[in-house]
Amino acid sequence: MSLAVVTPPSEPAVSLAEAKAHLRVDHADDDALIESLVAAASDLVEAYTQRRLLTQALDWTVPAFRPVLVTPLAPVTADGVVSIKYRDAGGAQRTLDPSAYIVRCGAGEHGPAVIRPAAATTWPAPDYNTADPVVLRFTVGFGAAADVPAPIKAAILLVAGALYANREAVVPGTSSPLSLDTAPAVTALLIPYLWEP
């Protein structure tokens, strides 16, 4: 299985201005550094929660149809499954008619998409000898930066702040690595958004 970004987000989850206000930085000398730390903190939060924060389109390549397909990331909205393609016996890529499958989003609009064949239908048999027998394109994310929940933004700011204050892999004066597991406030902020595929 693999995931590829088709359409990336057009903005960061936390703006440079928001980060500088949190860090109490009023000069431009560290702007590039702060932007990179916000990006790293956002990636860390996304990996920890198994979510994508900002709307983006992804291609998920799987080796075969399963009885039920569950997207490996959340949140997927009700119209978030864009297409399902597969390679037929001749190797040609075909697009499934949307009437051939049912999409349900778990946990309202904050969960993954659960996809199964429609009543009285079955998945087609893809050509398993190709590199991309089944490709599901879906959109994921809370929306724009303004739509990202406040606790997630706060967690990003806390992680970026810790990275900005501590430029080493270990917190100074301790033997503790800088991680989410050693940051109870960050973990507490993210617990409501944890999702494991």
From TrEMBL:
<dbReference type="InterPro" id="IPR021146">
    <property type="entry name" value="Phage_gp6-like_head-tail"/>
</dbReference>
<dbReference type="InterPro" id="IPR011738">
    <property type="entry name" value="Phage_CHP"/>
</dbReference>
<dbReference type="Pfam" id="PF05135">
    <property type="entry name" value="Phage_connect_1"/>
</dbReference>
<dbReference type="InterPro" id="IPR006450">
    <property type="entry name" value="Phage_HK97_gp6-like"/>
</dbReference>
<protein>
    <recommendedName>
        <fullName>Phage gp6-like head-tail connector protein</fullName>
    </recommendedName>
</protein>
